[in-house]
Prior knowledge:
Layout (H helix, E strand, L loop, with lengths): L2 H17 L4 H6 E8 L9 H14 L4 E2 L3 E5 L2 E5 L2 E4 L13 E4 L1 E8 L2 E9 L1 H8 L10
Parallel strand pairs: 1-8
Antiparallel strand pairs: 2-5, 3-4, 4-7, 5-6, 7-8
Amino acid sequence: MSIESNKALVREITEELWNKWNLNVIDECFSPNFINHDAINPQVRNRQEFKDWVKAVSVAYPQGKYAIEFLIAEGDMVFSFNPHHAKNSGDYFGFPATGKEVIYSASSASRIVDGKIVETWFIYDLFSQLVQLGLVKNPWATE
Protein backbone atom coordinates (compact mmCIF):
# COMPACT_ATOMS: atom_id res chain seq x y z
CA MET A 1 0.00 0.00 0.00
CA SER A 2 1.15 3.53 -0.69
CA ILE A 3 1.70 6.21 1.91
CA GLU A 4 -1.29 8.12 0.51
CA SER A 5 -3.59 5.08 0.77
CA ASN A 6 -2.41 4.51 4.35
CA LYS A 7 -3.22 8.14 5.19
CA ALA A 8 -6.63 7.73 3.52
CA LEU A 9 -7.31 4.71 5.73
CA VAL A 10 -6.55 6.72 8.87
CA ARG A 11 -8.80 9.55 7.63
CA GLU A 12 -11.62 7.04 7.02
CA ILE A 13 -11.20 5.54 10.49
CA THR A 14 -11.21 8.98 12.12
CA GLU A 15 -14.45 9.94 10.38
CA GLU A 16 -16.33 6.65 10.49
CA LEU A 17 -15.17 5.21 13.81
CA TRP A 18 -14.34 8.19 16.01
CA ASN A 19 -16.86 10.74 14.65
CA LYS A 20 -19.77 8.49 13.62
CA TRP A 21 -19.11 5.61 16.06
CA ASN A 22 -19.45 3.03 13.26
CA LEU A 23 -17.99 0.00 15.05
CA ASN A 24 -18.11 -2.08 11.83
CA VAL A 25 -15.03 -0.10 10.74
CA ILE A 26 -13.00 -2.05 13.29
CA ASP A 27 -13.75 -5.36 11.56
CA GLU A 28 -13.25 -3.81 8.12
CA CYS A 29 -10.08 -1.78 8.71
CA PHE A 30 -8.24 -3.51 11.55
CA SER A 31 -6.41 -6.82 11.22
CA PRO A 32 -7.84 -9.82 13.11
CA ASN A 33 -4.43 -9.90 14.83
CA PHE A 34 -4.62 -6.20 15.78
CA ILE A 35 -2.58 -5.16 18.81
CA ASN A 36 -3.49 -2.03 20.76
CA HIS A 37 -0.73 -0.26 22.68
CA ASP A 38 -2.22 2.08 25.26
CA ALA A 39 -0.45 2.81 28.54
CA ILE A 40 -3.66 4.09 30.12
CA ASN A 41 -5.65 0.99 29.11
CA PRO A 42 -3.15 -1.89 29.04
CA GLN A 43 -6.01 -4.39 29.34
CA VAL A 44 -7.28 -3.33 25.88
CA ARG A 45 -4.99 -5.40 23.68
CA ASN A 46 -6.86 -7.05 20.81
CA ARG A 47 -9.51 -6.14 18.26
CA GLN A 48 -12.53 -7.25 20.36
CA GLU A 49 -11.29 -5.51 23.51
CA PHE A 50 -10.61 -2.42 21.41
CA LYS A 51 -14.16 -2.54 20.01
CA ASP A 52 -15.59 -2.80 23.54
CA TRP A 53 -13.49 0.16 24.69
CA VAL A 54 -14.52 2.33 21.70
CA LYS A 55 -18.16 1.49 22.41
CA ALA A 56 -17.73 2.69 26.01
CA VAL A 57 -16.14 5.94 24.80
CA SER A 58 -19.08 6.43 22.41
CA VAL A 59 -21.50 6.19 25.35
CA ALA A 60 -19.59 8.89 27.23
CA TYR A 61 -19.22 11.21 24.23
CA PRO A 62 -21.93 10.36 21.69
CA GLN A 63 -21.62 13.68 19.86
CA GLY A 64 -17.82 13.96 20.10
CA LYS A 65 -15.77 15.26 17.20
CA TYR A 66 -12.19 14.31 16.41
CA ALA A 67 -10.47 16.68 14.01
CA ILE A 68 -7.40 15.79 12.01
CA GLU A 69 -4.86 18.54 12.55
CA PHE A 70 -2.18 16.66 10.64
CA LEU A 71 -1.06 13.27 9.39
CA ILE A 72 2.56 12.23 9.00
CA ALA A 73 3.35 9.02 7.17
CA GLU A 74 6.49 7.09 6.44
CA GLY A 75 6.74 3.51 5.26
CA ASP A 76 3.96 1.50 6.89
CA MET A 77 3.38 4.02 9.74
CA VAL A 78 0.89 6.89 9.98
CA PHE A 79 0.91 9.40 12.84
CA SER A 80 -2.29 11.38 13.37
CA PHE A 81 -2.82 14.34 15.71
CA ASN A 82 -6.50 14.62 16.59
CA PRO A 83 -7.85 17.19 19.05
CA HIS A 84 -11.14 15.96 20.50
CA HIS A 85 -14.05 18.26 21.34
CA ALA A 86 -17.02 16.67 23.07
CA LYS A 87 -19.73 16.95 25.67
CA ASN A 88 -19.83 14.22 28.31
CA SER A 89 -23.45 13.10 28.17
CA GLY A 90 -23.10 9.44 29.20
CA ASP A 91 -21.34 7.36 31.83
CA TYR A 92 -17.57 7.51 31.54
CA PHE A 93 -16.02 4.26 32.73
CA GLY A 94 -17.95 4.20 36.00
CA PHE A 95 -18.35 7.96 36.41
CA PRO A 96 -21.82 9.42 35.81
CA ALA A 97 -22.24 11.94 33.02
CA THR A 98 -21.18 15.46 33.96
CA GLY A 99 -22.73 17.35 31.05
CA LYS A 100 -19.45 19.24 30.71
CA GLU A 101 -17.58 19.94 27.49
CA VAL A 102 -13.98 18.91 27.02
CA ILE A 103 -11.27 19.70 24.53
CA TYR A 104 -8.13 17.61 24.76
CA SER A 105 -5.28 16.38 22.61
CA ALA A 106 -5.26 12.88 21.19
CA SER A 107 -2.91 11.22 18.76
CA SER A 108 -2.10 7.82 17.37
CA ALA A 109 0.62 6.06 15.48
CA SER A 110 -0.66 3.16 13.39
CA ARG A 111 1.20 0.47 11.52
CA ILE A 112 -0.63 -0.62 8.37
CA VAL A 113 -0.03 -3.85 6.47
CA ASP A 114 -2.00 -4.84 3.36
CA GLY A 115 -4.57 -2.11 3.93
CA LYS A 116 -5.34 -3.01 7.56
CA ILE A 117 -4.15 -1.57 10.83
CA VAL A 118 -2.11 -4.18 12.67
CA GLU A 119 -0.88 -2.06 15.60
CA THR A 120 -1.76 1.30 17.11
CA TRP A 121 -0.12 3.36 19.82
CA PHE A 122 -2.58 5.82 21.39
CA ILE A 123 -1.54 8.92 23.27
CA TYR A 124 -4.17 11.22 24.75
CA ASP A 125 -4.41 13.80 27.48
CA LEU A 126 -6.51 11.92 30.02
CA PHE A 127 -5.48 14.23 32.85
CA SER A 128 -6.79 17.33 31.05
CA GLN A 129 -9.97 15.48 30.18
CA LEU A 130 -10.57 14.43 33.82
CA VAL A 131 -9.86 17.97 35.10
CA GLN A 132 -12.32 19.46 32.61
CA LEU A 133 -14.95 16.91 33.64
CA GLY A 134 -14.42 17.90 37.28
CA LEU A 135 -13.36 14.35 38.20
CA VAL A 136 -9.88 15.33 39.45
CA LYS A 137 -8.41 18.55 40.79
CA ASN A 138 -5.64 20.30 38.89
CA PRO A 139 -2.81 20.66 41.42
CA TRP A 140 -1.34 23.56 39.42
CA ALA A 141 -4.53 25.61 39.26
CA THR A 142 -4.30 29.02 40.92
CA GLU A 143 -7.94 29.17 41.96
